[in-house]
TrEMBL record:
GO terms for biological process: proteolysis. Residues 1-16 form the signal peptide. It comes from the Eukaryota. Residues 25-245 form the Peptidase S1 domain. It comes from Daphnia pulex (Water flea). This is Peptidase S1 domain-containing protein.
């Protein structure tokens, strides 16, 4: 059947139909390198089969319907890729170590359609290869973006270039029935002019750089487009952390942490420098003059006072008592007798 579809496409091209099949999805457009650094191509026998998102350097988050029933040796993951024909500078192809699907995954209703792929070596991050944080849907934002290498038309094959499209949410998925759509575990999103298609399963649904869901299923990509169903990621935070570990994101939180660390350091430095010299100089200045003023005063006074009176006392007493007394009584005695 797929061979007939491919032949039909080739005949259409030869008859003058548009050659760029990626433009067949109305409202969709080609993505550029590095625009979605978290997207991953999950490949079966080295051919794109589904998409996924980089959870961390060792795990890829995707849909259970993409990997259920396959051996790890049959799968590989390619990150940092935009085109399957023209390799990107940061493109990496990594073998799969193991696959963990949600234990309560239902392959009929696609409830709990979520899985984690373990890689046999860590991803090397760069400008075009990054992990993405996940969270609950922001109800204040009525749109979200999804991307992938899915078919450009119903029954078609995967395309070679990464494409993106904007979807509206939440929408009404009551047409699927109560057993097919569960609001608590699923997100209903779509557009009147665009739709995910085959091989887009596992693609992330993103709001403002935060993943809120992964593509699970739809009723095809024939206009008028019926909304698609995405697995609601926030519901599975406990299981995701238990299998893949806690995310160590950093894309938006790391710069904030760095800036907050620098700010308290700047005011602390001047405070230490200001207090230390002031405290040290003040006690030193008054102590020095007190020591210098007191010793010189008593030392100078004592030396001058003791030395000055001692010298004249010795010189005055010796000549006065020795010379005049014996000479004076002897002279008058000789003069009186004759």
């Amino acid at each position: 059947m797929k061979h007939l579809l491919i032949i039909s496409v080739l005949v259409a091209i030869g008859a003058g139909a548009p050659r760029d099949l990626s433009e067949r999805i109305a409202g969709g457009s080609l993505a550029t390198e590095g625009e979605f650094p978290y997207i991953a191509s999950v490949q079966l026998e080295r051919r794109h089969y589904c998409s996924g998102m980089i959870y961390n350097d060792r795990w890829i988050l995707t849909a259970a319907s993409c990997v259920s029933g396959f051996l790890p040796s049959q799968l590989q993951v390619v990150v940092g890729i935009v085109s399957f024909i023209s390799p990107s500078a940061q493109q990496q192809t990594i073998a799969v170590s193991s696959v963990v699907t949600h234990p309560q995954y239902d392959n009929v209703t696609k409830l709990n359609d979520i899985a984690l792929i373990s890689l046999n070596r860590p991803i090397l991050f760069g400008s075009a290869v990054q992990e993405i944080r996940y969270d609950e849907v922001d109800e204040a934002i009525p749109t979200a973006i999804t991307m992938g290498w899915g078919a450009s038309m119903e029954g078609g094959v995967e395309v070679t270039k990464l494409r993106k499209t904007v979807l509206t949410l939440p929408l009404d998925c009551s047409s699927y029935g109560a057993t097919e759509f569960n609001f608590n575990y699923m997100i209903c999103a779509g557009s009147d002019v665009s739709s995910p298609c085959h091989y887009d399963e596992g693609s992330p649904l993103v709001q403002n750089g935060i993943a809120v869901g992964i593509m699970s299923k739809n009723k095809g990509c024939i206009a008028p487009y019926i909304p698609s169903i995405f697995t609601r990621l926030s519901v599975y935070y406990y299981w995701i952390n238990a299998v893949g570990g806690q995310q160590a994101i950093t894309t938006s939180s790391t710069p904030a942490t760095t800036l907050s660390t620098v700010k308290p350091t700047v005011p602390t430095a001047p405070c230490i420098n200001c207090e230390t010299p002031t405290t040290t100089i003040q006690p030193t200045i008054p102590t020095a003059p007190c020591i210098n003023c007191e010793p010189p005063a008593p030392t100078t006074t004592i030396v001058t006072t003791i030395t000055a009176p001692t010298a004249p006392c010795i010189n005055c007493e010796a000549p006065t008592s020795t010379t005049p007394k014996p000479i004076i009584p002897t002279a008058p005695c000789f003069n009186c007798v004759p």
